[in-house]
Amino acid sequence: MCPRCWNAAWHAANERAGKRADAGKARLAHYEHAARLAEQLSAEVAESCRQLCWHAAWRAANEQSGRDGEAEEARAAEAEYAAAVAEQVPAALAAALTELAARAARHAACSLLGKKADAKLHRSSFERAAAEVHRLGG
């Protein structure tokens, strides 16, 4: 789970920062990790998780770059996929995955904007969420 959220976050943040080459690399890594996950889980769960990470990433990147309308669209899609994940996996795992996606996204967005303290906080929270996902078998 973790590499996919991490790469989606860096793709969106780099895209908003105008770093197209880095964004492209992160996007490719995101899809590669998603394909590997699809081999381990049902296609439905894998796709819901991929979309959750993707929309969380775009919400954070759009919020941090002042694109309120696009952030709201991404937030709505993120909520939709968080609900889908919650229907497909145990509640504790769904909550940890949602937290993981949000924290990866916020870390990347804050990092590229030079918000070091915020980035550090979100990185720490991401690591806690990743440990919880792992503990729960995700």
Please identify the structural class as seen in this structure. mainly alpha
Mean pLDDT: 91
Number of DSSP-assigned strands? 0
Shape: globular
Structure explained in plain terms:
The protein is mostly helical. It contains 6 helices and no strands. It has helices at residues 2-16, 20-40, 43-64, 68-88, 91-112, 116-135. Helix 3 runs parallel beside helix 5. It is globular.
Concise structural overview:
With 138 residues, the protein is mainly alpha-helical. Helices cover 88% and strands 0% of the residues. It is built from 6 helices and no strands.
Descriptive labels:
138 residues; mainly alpha
Break the fold down into its secondary structure elements and pairings.
Elements: H1 2-16, H2 20-40, H3 43-64, H4 68-88, H5 91-112, H6 116-135
Helix pairs in contact: 1-2, 1-3, 1-5, 2-3, 3-4, 3-5, 4-5, 5-6
